[in-house]
Amino acid sequence: MKHKDRLVVITGGAQGIGKAIVDAFLREGAFVVTMDLRHGRSASNLVWIQGDLTLSEDRNFFVDEIMKLNRKVDVLVNNAMVFTSGLRSHTPTEEIRKAIELGAIAPYDLILQLSGSMNDSSSIINLLSTRAFQSQADSEGYAMAKGALGSLTHAAALSLGPKVRVNAIAPGWIQTKPSRLSDSDLLQHPVGRVGTPEDIAKAVLFLASEDAGFITGETLTIDGGMSKRMIYHQDEGWIYDPKENHG
Ligand SMILES: NC(=O)c1ccc[n+]([C@@H]2O[C@H](COP(=O)([O-])OP(=O)(O)OC[C@H]3O[C@@H](n4cnc5c(N)ncnc54)[C@H](O)[C@@H]3O)[C@@H](O)[C@H]2O)c1
Predict the structure, then answer these.
(1) What pairing do the DSSP bridges indicate for beta strands 7-11 and 118-127?
(2) Ligand 1 mean position to 239 CA, how many Å?
(3) Ligand 1 center to residue 198 CA distance, Å?
(4) Which of 10, 17, 84, 199 to mutate to test the pocket of ligand 1 (most atoms within 8 A of CB)?
(5) 68: part of which helix (H) or strand (E)?
(6) How much is the average pLDDT of 87-111?
(7) Pick from 117, 75, 66, 108: which is nearest to 205 by CA?
(8) Which of 45, 63, 83, 200 is the 20 to 30 Å CA partner of 132?
(9) Which pLDDT score is estimated for 247?
C-alpha cells in the first residue's frame, strides 16, 4: 500500500483508463478527486466533480474543490482526452484548438495551479499516446495535443524538480470496451495481445511511487512492443497499397 492516505487528482475518471487508475488508487487506500464530463459514483474516499476540462471556469472550480480539502496534492494524473481527426476530414481549426485545450492547456493549467500545493514526494503523470511519436493519416488534432503534452512533461520536470517529478505514459492499443479482435490484431503485438486499462494503471502506481524516485522527465511506452515492429512492403505478408493512401 504505497499510496495509502495520499491525495490523488485524476482527470477523466469515469471510464476506460481513467477509471482503472481511480480504482487502482482507491484499492491502495488513497483519497481520489476526479473531474469528468459524466456523472459519477460517490464513495467515502472519492470526490467526483462533474465538469468540462476545456473550460477554465470548470478547471478553476475543480482546483477550488481540491483546495477546500486543505491537504497537499501527492499525485496529479492528466488523463482526459478525446480523439480528434485532422486534415483529411477537414477538421475545423476550432476543433483542433479544443483538442489542444483538453490535451495540453488543461494539464498545464492544473499543474500551474496545483504544483504549489504539492509536497516533496509528489508526482505528475501525463497520459500521452504512441501517436505522439508516429501516426495514421487524419489524426492531426490528437497528435498535436499529445505532442504538446509530451513536451510539457520534460519541460515541467525541469521547472518543478527537485521537488516534484513529472513523467508520461504513452499507451498503444488499450481495449477499453469489449470488441471482437482478430488473431492478427493480437499477434501484431510482440506480446500477443492488446493492452488493458489495468496495464496502464499499474504503471501509474509505479511512477507515482518512491520506487520511481530517480525517474523524471521520462515517457514510458506501454504498447506490447507494437511500435518496435519494423514494417517493410511484403514483410510478414504486409502489402503497401498506394491506392489506400490517397491524400
Ligand atoms: N485507449 C487507448 O487505446 C489509448 C491509447 C493511447 C492513449 N490513450 C490515452 O489514455 C487516456 C485515456 O483514454 P481512454 O481510452 O480511457 O479514453 P475514454 O474516452 O475511454 O475516457 C476518457 C474520459 O475522459 C472524459 N473526458 C473527455 N473529455 C472531457 C472533458 N472535456 N472534461 C472532462 N472529462 C472529459 C470522458 O468522459 C471519459 O470518462 C487519454 O489521454 C487517451 O488519449 C488511450
Answers:
(1) unpaired
(2) 32
(3) 14
(4) 17
(5) helix 56-68
(6) 98
(7) 75
(8) 63
(9) 59
Determine what percent of the chain falls in helix, strand and coil, rounding each to the nearest 5: 45, 20, 40
Closest ligand 1 atom to 55 CA = 31
pLDDT for residue 133: 98
3-state secondary structure of 148: helix
pLDDT in tens, 112-131: 999 999 999 999 999 999 99
Q: Is 142 a known active-site residue?
A: yes
Q: Which fold has domain 7-245?
A: Rossmann fold (3.40.50)
User: Which band of pLDDT confidence, cut at 50, 70 and 90, is reported for residue 42?
Assistant: confident
Residue 141, SS3 per DSSP:
helix
Q: State the closest ligand 1 atom to the C-alpha of 142, by its place in the atom list counted from 1.
A: 43
Residue 12 CA: nearest ligand 1 atom is 24
DSSP conformation class of 13: -
In DSSP notation, 172-197 reads: -SB--S-----HHHHHTSTTSS-B-H
Average pLDDT of the chain, as a whole number: 97
pTM here is: 0.98
Residue of higher predicted confidence among 42 and 214: 214
Q: How much is the average pLDDT of 175-186?
A: 97
| pLDDT tens digits along 140-150 | 999 999 999 99
226 Cα: distance to centroid of ligand 1 (angstroms): 20
- Protein residues whose CB sits closer than 6 Å to any atom of ligand 1: 12, 14-18, 35-38, 52-54, 79-82, 102, 127, 129, 171, 173-174, 176
